[in-house]
User: Which sequence fits this backbone?
């Protein structure tokens, strides 16, 4: 495309108002300026517009453009602040770094039914929170219970919801100086997912700490997600009174969801093995 010739104003007119400069049809301000000697001296001082000569007309932002630029910068500032806030919430809410990458986007599709239910829960969390509806993911080892609990927590954090993924074992092992802070966070969070319930050590102290964590959610009337290898029947039929206090609260607050199917970990390992054999040996598993 042929470049338009530069418009030059005679030196005798650069400091006058007789130049016919283009104006913005919206705000009426000029969208051009003339490089006067005074402006040139100022620009030289700070290194601005080095190629524009005195007498030359150059583009200049009108009020519309300035306001648009300010609005754009404010949007960028707010987006950056929101992203930083989400990152802080994720660091605070998910201690296990591996679980921070467990998202619906990273789902390999091993259990589409549980994915759909988990996604609906996250998408309708306002109602789940208002009605205090929790989930109990129960099933065998490696079927994806932790993964889908983490997917829900990550999805909510992305929306600015204060959600946590922890375990009763982590709460139990918290030192005395920090346990009140941890229990307060568990009480204040909009959602808390407790992973691998039933694997805690068998002591009176552990039972008491675990009860305090679960009871904090019940008293706050806020939902929780529980993942466990135990069935609802096993949770309901315990005879130990300390465990029964904990499990009865869980069963009263959570809707059981059976996570069936083969181990996602085994399937993922098989996939990696096939990939490695294909890459290194030119083989594949039948």
Assistant:
């Amino acid at each position: 495309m042929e470049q338009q010739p530069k418009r030059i104003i005679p030196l005798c007119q650069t400091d006058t108002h007789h130049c016919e400069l283009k104006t913005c049809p919206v705000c009426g301000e000029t969208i051009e300026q003339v490089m006067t000697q005074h402006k040139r001296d100022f620009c030289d001082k700070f290194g601005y517009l080095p190629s524009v000569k005195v007498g030359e007309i150059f583009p200049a932002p009108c009020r519309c453009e300035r306001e648009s630029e300010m609005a754009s910068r404010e949007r960028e500032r707010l987006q950056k602040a929101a992203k930083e806030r989400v990152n802080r919430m994720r660091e605070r809410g998910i201690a296990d770094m591996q679980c921070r990458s467990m998202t619906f986007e990273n789902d390999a599709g091993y259990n589409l039914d549980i994915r759909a239910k988990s996604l609906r829960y996250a998408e309708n969390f306002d109602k789940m929170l208002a009605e205090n509806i929790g989930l109990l993911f129960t099933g065998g080892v490696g079927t994806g219970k932790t993964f889908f609990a983490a997917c829900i927590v990550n999805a909510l954090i992305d929306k600015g919801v204060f959600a946590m993924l922890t375990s009763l074992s982590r709460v139990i092992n918290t030192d005395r100086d920090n346990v009140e802070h941890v229990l307060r966070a568990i009480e204040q969070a909009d959602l808390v997912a407790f992973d691998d319930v039933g694997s805690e050590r068998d002591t009176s102290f552990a039972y008491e700490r675990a009860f305090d964590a679960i009871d904090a959610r019940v008293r706050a009337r806020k939902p929780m997600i529980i993942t466990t290898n135990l069935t609802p029947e096993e949770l309901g039929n315990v005879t130990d009174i300390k465990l029964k206090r904990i499990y009865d609260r869980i069963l009263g607050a959570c809707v059981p969801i059976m996570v069936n199917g083969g181990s996602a970990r085994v399937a993922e390992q098989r996939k990696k093995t096939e990939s490695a054999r294909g890459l290194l040996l030119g083989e594949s598993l039948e």
In short: The chain has eleven helices and seven strands. The domain at 94-268 is CATH 3.40.50.300 (Rossmann fold). The two ends are 60 Å apart (CA to CA). The beta strands are 32-34, 57-59, 134-138, 163-166, 191-194, 224-228, 254-258.
